[in-house]
Specification:
With about 230 residues, the chain is mainly α. It has two domains: about 120 residues, Alpha Horseshoe (Serine Threonine Protein Phosphatase 5, Tetratricopeptide repeat), CATH 1.25.40; about 70 residues, no CATH class. It is about 75% helix and about 0% strand. The chain has 13 helices and no strands.
Protein backbone atom coordinates (compact mmCIF):
# COMPACT_ATOMS: atom_id res chain seq x y z
CA UNK A 1 0.00 0.00 0.00
CA UNK A 2 2.86 2.33 0.87
CA UNK A 3 4.50 1.53 -2.43
CA UNK A 4 1.30 2.42 -4.30
CA UNK A 5 1.16 5.81 -2.50
CA UNK A 6 4.79 6.49 -3.35
CA UNK A 7 4.14 5.58 -6.99
CA UNK A 8 1.11 7.91 -7.09
CA UNK A 9 3.15 10.80 -5.68
CA UNK A 10 5.90 10.23 -8.22
CA UNK A 11 3.40 10.21 -11.10
CA UNK A 12 1.85 13.48 -9.90
CA UNK A 13 5.26 15.12 -9.53
CA UNK A 14 6.26 13.93 -12.98
CA UNK A 15 3.09 15.46 -14.42
CA UNK A 16 3.79 18.80 -12.77
CA UNK A 17 7.37 18.84 -14.06
CA UNK A 18 6.18 17.88 -17.53
CA UNK A 19 3.56 20.64 -17.54
CA UNK A 20 6.12 23.18 -16.40
CA UNK A 21 8.51 22.01 -19.06
CA UNK A 22 5.88 22.51 -21.78
CA UNK A 23 5.51 26.20 -20.92
CA UNK A 24 7.93 28.02 -23.17
CA UNK A 25 9.72 31.00 -21.67
CA UNK A 26 8.59 34.37 -22.97
CA UNK A 27 10.63 35.32 -25.97
CA UNK A 28 11.81 38.83 -26.79
CA UNK A 29 9.38 38.92 -29.70
CA UNK A 30 6.49 38.04 -27.40
CA UNK A 31 7.44 40.81 -24.98
CA UNK A 32 7.55 43.30 -27.86
CA UNK A 33 4.05 42.34 -28.98
CA UNK A 34 2.48 43.20 -25.64
CA UNK A 35 4.68 46.25 -25.05
CA UNK A 36 3.36 49.67 -26.13
CA UNK A 37 4.30 50.53 -29.69
CA UNK A 38 6.36 53.59 -30.54
CA UNK A 39 3.21 55.19 -31.96
CA UNK A 40 1.29 54.64 -28.73
CA UNK A 41 4.16 56.06 -26.71
CA UNK A 42 4.36 59.09 -28.97
CA UNK A 43 0.60 59.61 -28.71
CA UNK A 44 0.88 59.62 -24.92
CA UNK A 45 3.72 62.15 -25.11
CA UNK A 46 1.71 64.42 -27.40
CA UNK A 47 -1.37 64.29 -25.16
CA UNK A 48 0.82 65.24 -22.20
CA UNK A 49 2.34 68.08 -24.24
CA UNK A 50 -1.14 69.36 -25.05
CA UNK A 51 -1.93 69.59 -21.37
CA UNK A 52 1.12 71.78 -20.86
CA UNK A 53 1.07 73.76 -24.13
CA UNK A 54 -2.42 73.65 -25.59
CA UNK A 55 -2.57 75.46 -28.88
CA UNK A 56 0.83 74.34 -30.20
CA UNK A 57 -0.08 73.77 -33.90
CA UNK A 58 2.50 71.10 -34.70
CA UNK A 59 1.59 69.08 -31.61
CA UNK A 60 -2.07 69.01 -32.65
CA UNK A 61 -1.12 68.20 -36.24
CA UNK A 62 1.11 65.28 -35.27
CA UNK A 63 -1.50 63.88 -32.91
CA UNK A 64 -4.09 64.26 -35.67
CA UNK A 65 -1.89 62.23 -38.02
CA UNK A 66 -1.74 59.43 -35.46
CA UNK A 67 -5.53 59.45 -35.13
CA UNK A 68 -5.79 59.50 -38.91
CA UNK A 69 -3.59 56.40 -39.11
CA UNK A 70 -5.81 54.69 -36.54
CA UNK A 71 -8.95 55.45 -38.53
CA UNK A 72 -10.31 57.84 -35.89
CA UNK A 73 -11.42 60.42 -38.43
CA UNK A 74 -13.41 62.74 -36.14
CA UNK A 75 -10.59 62.95 -33.61
CA UNK A 76 -8.07 63.53 -36.39
CA UNK A 77 -10.11 66.33 -37.96
CA UNK A 78 -10.58 68.00 -34.58
CA UNK A 79 -6.80 68.09 -34.02
CA UNK A 80 -6.12 69.34 -37.56
CA UNK A 81 -8.68 72.11 -37.13
CA UNK A 82 -7.08 73.23 -33.88
CA UNK A 83 -3.67 73.30 -35.60
CA UNK A 84 -5.08 75.34 -38.48
CA UNK A 85 -6.91 77.62 -36.06
CA UNK A 86 -3.73 78.53 -34.22
CA UNK A 87 -1.71 78.74 -37.43
CA UNK A 88 -3.89 79.82 -40.38
CA UNK A 89 -1.13 78.96 -42.88
CA UNK A 90 -0.63 75.43 -41.57
CA UNK A 91 -1.35 73.98 -44.99
CA UNK A 92 -0.36 70.46 -43.96
CA UNK A 93 -3.26 70.51 -41.50
CA UNK A 94 -5.62 71.86 -44.16
CA UNK A 95 -4.72 69.09 -46.61
CA UNK A 96 -5.02 66.49 -43.84
CA UNK A 97 -8.57 67.66 -43.07
CA UNK A 98 -9.54 67.19 -46.72
CA UNK A 99 -7.98 63.70 -46.79
CA UNK A 100 -9.61 62.66 -43.50
CA UNK A 101 -13.07 63.60 -44.81
CA UNK A 102 -12.37 61.50 -47.88
CA UNK A 103 -11.17 58.52 -45.85
CA UNK A 104 -14.27 58.81 -43.68
CA UNK A 105 -16.41 58.39 -46.79
CA UNK A 106 -17.57 62.02 -46.85
CA UNK A 107 -16.58 62.83 -50.41
CA UNK A 108 -18.80 65.91 -50.79
CA UNK A 109 -17.39 67.44 -47.62
CA UNK A 110 -13.88 66.60 -48.77
CA UNK A 111 -14.42 68.36 -52.11
CA UNK A 112 -15.95 71.40 -50.42
CA UNK A 113 -13.08 71.65 -47.93
CA UNK A 114 -10.51 71.35 -50.72
CA UNK A 115 -12.19 74.14 -52.68
CA UNK A 116 -12.31 76.39 -49.62
CA UNK A 117 -8.65 75.90 -48.75
CA UNK A 118 -7.48 76.37 -52.34
CA UNK A 119 -9.42 79.65 -52.47
CA UNK A 120 -7.94 80.59 -49.11
CA UNK A 121 -4.42 80.09 -50.46
CA UNK A 122 -5.09 82.08 -53.63
CA UNK A 123 -3.78 85.33 -52.14
CA UNK A 124 -0.18 84.33 -52.88
CA UNK A 125 1.86 82.01 -55.07
CA UNK A 126 3.88 80.72 -52.12
CA UNK A 127 0.77 79.73 -50.15
CA UNK A 128 -0.68 78.00 -53.20
CA UNK A 129 2.58 76.14 -53.72
CA UNK A 130 2.82 75.07 -50.08
CA UNK A 131 -0.79 73.85 -50.07
CA UNK A 132 -0.04 71.91 -53.25
CA UNK A 133 2.91 70.23 -51.58
CA UNK A 134 0.73 69.42 -48.58
CA UNK A 135 -1.85 67.77 -50.85
CA UNK A 136 0.93 65.75 -52.45
CA UNK A 137 1.94 64.48 -49.00
CA UNK A 138 -1.63 63.24 -48.62
CA UNK A 139 -1.48 61.64 -52.10
CA UNK A 140 -4.18 63.96 -53.43
CA UNK A 141 -2.75 64.63 -56.87
CA UNK A 142 -5.68 66.50 -58.46
CA UNK A 143 -5.84 68.99 -55.63
CA UNK A 144 -2.06 69.42 -55.65
CA UNK A 145 -2.05 70.15 -59.36
CA UNK A 146 -4.86 72.68 -58.99
CA UNK A 147 -2.74 74.52 -56.41
CA UNK A 148 0.32 74.52 -58.67
CA UNK A 149 -1.71 75.92 -61.56
CA UNK A 150 -3.07 78.61 -59.25
CA UNK A 151 0.46 79.51 -58.14
CA UNK A 152 1.59 79.76 -61.78
CA UNK A 153 -1.25 82.14 -62.57
CA UNK A 154 -0.02 84.41 -59.79
CA UNK A 155 3.72 84.11 -60.48
CA UNK A 156 4.23 82.86 -64.03
CA UNK A 157 7.80 84.20 -64.10
CA UNK A 158 9.07 82.20 -61.13
CA UNK A 159 11.92 79.96 -62.24
CA UNK A 160 11.65 77.91 -59.06
CA UNK A 161 7.91 77.38 -59.42
CA UNK A 162 8.21 76.35 -63.07
CA UNK A 163 11.02 74.00 -62.08
CA UNK A 164 8.91 72.45 -59.31
CA UNK A 165 5.96 71.91 -61.65
CA UNK A 166 8.30 70.55 -64.32
CA UNK A 167 9.72 68.00 -61.91
CA UNK A 168 6.20 67.17 -60.74
CA UNK A 169 5.22 66.20 -64.29
CA UNK A 170 8.54 64.41 -64.70
CA UNK A 171 7.70 62.22 -61.69
CA UNK A 172 4.38 61.40 -63.37
CA UNK A 173 6.19 60.51 -66.61
CA UNK A 174 4.35 63.28 -68.43
CA UNK A 175 7.42 64.27 -70.40
CA UNK A 176 5.65 66.73 -72.71
CA UNK A 177 4.46 68.95 -69.87
CA UNK A 178 7.67 68.37 -67.94
CA UNK A 179 9.65 69.75 -70.88
CA UNK A 180 7.32 72.74 -71.17
CA UNK A 181 7.82 73.90 -67.57
CA UNK A 182 11.48 72.99 -67.33
CA UNK A 183 12.20 74.96 -70.51
CA UNK A 184 10.33 77.92 -69.05
CA UNK A 185 12.30 77.69 -65.82
CA UNK A 186 15.57 77.58 -67.73
CA UNK A 187 14.61 80.59 -69.84
CA UNK A 188 13.88 82.64 -66.75
CA UNK A 189 16.95 81.57 -64.77
CA UNK A 190 19.30 78.95 -66.24
CA UNK A 191 20.49 76.31 -63.78
CA UNK A 192 22.57 73.15 -63.99
CA UNK A 193 19.81 71.13 -62.31
CA UNK A 194 17.21 72.07 -64.90
CA UNK A 195 19.71 71.74 -67.73
CA UNK A 196 20.55 68.22 -66.56
CA UNK A 197 16.86 67.27 -66.37
CA UNK A 198 16.25 68.55 -69.88
CA UNK A 199 19.38 66.75 -71.08
CA UNK A 200 18.02 63.46 -69.74
CA UNK A 201 14.92 64.15 -71.82
CA UNK A 202 17.18 64.47 -74.83
CA UNK A 203 16.84 68.24 -75.03
CA UNK A 204 19.93 70.40 -75.41
CA UNK A 205 19.67 73.93 -74.02
CA UNK A 206 21.93 76.94 -74.02
CA UNK A 207 22.08 79.90 -71.68
CA UNK A 208 20.16 82.78 -73.31
CA UNK A 209 22.29 85.75 -74.33
CA UNK A 210 19.87 88.22 -72.85
CA UNK A 211 17.24 87.54 -70.24
CA UNK A 212 14.10 89.58 -69.79
CA UNK A 213 13.63 91.32 -66.48
CA UNK A 214 11.13 89.07 -64.74
CA UNK A 215 9.96 90.32 -61.38
CA UNK A 216 6.72 88.50 -60.55
CA UNK A 217 8.55 85.39 -59.45
CA UNK A 218 11.62 86.77 -57.67
CA UNK A 219 10.13 86.72 -54.17
CA UNK A 220 8.86 83.17 -54.62
CA UNK A 221 12.20 82.03 -56.05
CA UNK A 222 13.97 83.35 -52.97
CA UNK A 223 11.57 81.46 -50.72
CA UNK A 224 12.06 78.25 -52.71
CA UNK A 225 15.84 78.59 -52.62
CA UNK A 226 15.80 78.99 -48.83
CA UNK A 227 13.44 76.01 -48.51
CA UNK A 228 15.76 73.81 -50.58
CA UNK A 229 18.75 74.81 -48.46
CA UNK A 230 16.91 73.87 -45.25
CA UNK A 231 15.87 70.54 -46.77
CA UNK A 232 19.48 69.70 -47.70
CA UNK A 233 20.69 70.49 -44.16
CA UNK A 234 18.20 67.98 -42.76
Amino acid sequence: MANIKKLTVLIVLAGVVAAGGCQKPRTKAHREVIAPTSTELRKTELIQLQAKRYGEPDVHYELGKIYQGEGLWDKAITEFRVAKGYNPVHWDAAAAIVKSHLLAGKQDLSLLSAENYINEASYSASSSLLLGKAFQKEFMEEEALECYKQALRIAPDSAGLNKHVGFYYLSKKDYVRAEQYLRRSFEISPSAEVSGALGRLGIAVQIPRKQADKTSGKKLDKMLANSEKKAKKK
